[in-house]
Amino acid sequence: MRIFVFGSSITSSYWNGAATYYRGMYKNLAALGHEVTFAEPDIYKRQQNRDLSEVEYAKVIVYQTPRDIDELINLACTADLVIKHSGVGADDGLLERRLLDCQSPHTRISFWDVDAPATLQRIEADSLDAFRHCIPRYDFVFTYGGGPEVVRRYLALGARNCYPIYNALDPDTHHAELPDASLACDLVFVGNRLPDRELRVEQFFLRAAELAPEMSFILGGEGWGGKPLPANVRWIGHVGTGSHNHVNASARMVLNINRDSMADVGFSPPTRVFEAAGAGACLITDKWYGIEKFFAPGSEILVAENAEDVVTYLRKRSAADSRSIGNAMQARALAEHTYAQRAAEVEQILNLARAERHPSAVDQFLLQEVERRA
Questions:
Q1: Can you tell me the distance from the alpha carbon of 240 to that of 164, in angstroms, rounded to the nearest whole number?
Q2: What domains can be seen in the chain, in order of their start residue?
């Protein structure tokens, strides 16, 4: 199958949290025999901050927007499946509407949402939102998280279907490495400074640092330069995906903090969770609904409701405990949560539709998947 994709960037993770997801998904769809073209706009200095020089599994088109959109749409219309990801970052509304021009008996179109809580919140708050009227016309809606609630909300907006395809692990990319002494610390958190995350970073990470002045903390990610930090917190700036392994391997524990919208909806493990799993790191996460569907709290992942819980784990969990938890999480991820498995899910969905099975059969598959993950 020829797949044409519009996304933020597959070549750069700079201010682009979806990069790991794109790479894992399209690498493994290509491994299944699909031909992938990925179109990304030249914006936000991402091309000047590439951390993937070659993409062997996809043809990458870097375009100027909106100048090149007409030409790209014409090219996309020759594919079997056209995918528009949310959050391309420029002319999203135009792309969402223009993709409808490609729909034909031989070309199906899909909206693949990498931030479903934000998209749904926007659409549900505005009955005149232009994308609201596009949703029922898409052949497929995929999301990278959200579970049953996101499925229900998309179906209520008229979507023909909605399939959560969760973040996962690419063991070729994220795996155990030797620790880097320059990055040694008790706890590391990597995440860009975003409005709907900053308060939770203050509550879980910076507050923990204040409560444990005898310990060392590392903060990675863009945007934190002007933020007042406790004396025992070191900011290391942007951490490219190629550096995540040794960052995760060098800390005694790793912290995950979901954005507000993802935590509220649940069933939304971010890429950082699986990257830590690949490294065999002991991960502490803020509490969110659906964690136990991915990893077992207490034995494969540690769950914190506040900074006090984070500090308790740091002070009371031994090095042996931490290694055991990290190893168990890694084993679970390799067994159940790889991008190869996620790509196989997508292919199964596409094959059901391509076989032109009765819509009720596809709907039944969707309902079974939602019930299985509920």
A1: 26
A2: 2-168+339-373 (3.40.50.11930), 181-336 (3.40.50.2000)
